Amino acid sequence: PSREDFPYAIRQVSEALSSNGSTSMGSVCASTLALFNAGVPLRAPVAGIAMGLISDDVDGKVEYVALTDILGAEDAFGDMDFKVAGTKDFVTALQLDTKLDGIPASVLAGALLQAKEARLAILDVMAEAIDGPDEMSPFAPRIISIKIPVDQIGAVIGPKGKIINQIQEETGADISIEDDGTIYIGADEGSKAEAARAQINAIANPQMPEVGERYLGTVVKLAAFGAFISLLPGKDGLLHVSQIRKMHGGKRIENLEEVMKIGDKIQVEIGEIDPKGKLSLVPVLEGEAAAE
């Protein structure tokens, strides 16, 4: 698959514990099954078959017989080891070893036709077990690629990297941005990568918040008149000190740092949006949150 479709480096290891045939062609078939099972979107399944050849002089003429799926003895005592791998439509790899000085083209052509018949039969058997990529495990390391408008790259990065660092810190994902707007998100599990993608999309393809929407926000700045709460990367609102008092039974608060600190999580609701788009927040009190 292309990097855009599947931005992973793949290391495929095959271990044959015993064999009386072609371990390489067995590995080709097993690799297709394993990659599909792991969720790799292969363009097409690939199978392989090892062809052999025996030849002898019959009435003064050399006769040839092609063998399909050779055993160890047929490989050792035969005249050819001809490995053919491919999809149902075309050959992807060939390897030929021979003990003869030469093999007639017609014999090789016949061996290729036999190999195709065998390959198609093997592909049918493989398809009965798994005929396409499974869903990747949510616990598998995840790399996601998304594309954003180039003019939104700065918004995702933020001043001095503030926004992108905030997303990485909150989600646990690693994020890299290409000059063309391609963003690669890497995380040790799928949920973290998806959380980072959601935050990036909220910036690059913003939706205007509406009055009444609720968020689990993060305190990012304290001032004498209230606290600034980050609802989404790049989208903050003000929780006025009068609203903060409601969280503490209406008591007067001399110093906000006595009741909250930067980094605290607070459930808030958008109470008002002024003509300039500034957000005024109200706290979601314990009873209201339970009713919600």
Describe the secondary structure blueprint for this structure:
Elements: H1 23-38, E1 47-58, E2 61-68, H2 72-77, E3 80-86, E4 91-98, H3 105-129, E5 142-147, H4 153-157, H5 162-171, E6 174-177, E7 182-187, H6 190-204, E8 214-223, E9 226-232, E10 235-240, H7 241-246, E11 265-273, E12 279-283, H8 286-291
Parallel strand pairs: 10-12
Antiparallel strand pairs: 1-2, 1-3, 3-4, 5-7, 6-7, 8-9, 8-11, 9-10, 11-12
Helix pairs in contact: 5-6
Structural class: alpha+beta
The CATH architecture name of the largest domain reads 2-Layer Sandwich
Rg value: 32 Å
Quote the distance from N terminus to C terminus: 45 Å
The CATH topology of the largest domain:
Ribosomal Protein S5, domain 2
Which parts are unreliable, with pLDDT below 50 for 5 consecutive residues or more?
none
Strand neighbour order, sheet with most strands? 8-9-10-12-11
Number of strands: 12
General shape = rod-shaped
CATH class of the largest domain: Alpha Beta
The chain-level mean pLDDT equals 88
Helix share of residues?
25-40%
Number of spatially distinct domains: 3
Name the CATH superfamily assignment of the largest domain. GHMP Kinase, N-terminal domain
- Biggest pleated sheet: 5 strands, mixed, barrel
Explain this structure to me?
- There is one protein chain.
- This protein has 292 residues and is an alpha+beta fold.
- The chain folds into three domains: 23-129, 2-Layer Sandwich (Ribosomal Protein S5, domain 2); 142-204, Ribosomal Protein S8, Chain: A, domain 1, CATH 3.30.1370; 214-291, Nucleic acid-binding proteins (OB fold (Dihydrolipoamide Acetyltransferase, E2P), Beta Barrel), CATH 2.40.50.
- It contains eight helices and twelve strands.
- The protein has helices at 23-38, 72-77, 105-129, 153-157, 162-171, 190-204, 241-246, 286-291; strands at residues 47-58, 61-68, 80-86, 91-98, 142-147, 174-177, 182-187, 214-223, 226-232, 235-240, 265-273, 279-283.
- The strands form three sheets. Strands 8-9-10-12-11 form a five-stranded mixed beta barrel. A four-stranded antiparallel sheet has the order 2-1-3-4.
- Strand 6 (174-177) and strand 7 (182-187) form a beta hairpin.
- Helix 5 (162-171) runs antiparallel to helix 6 (190-204).
- The longest helix has 25 residues, at 105-129.
- The protein is rod-shaped and about 115 Å long.
- It starts with 22 loop residues before the first helix and ends with a helix.
- The model has no long low-confidence stretch (mean pLDDT 88).
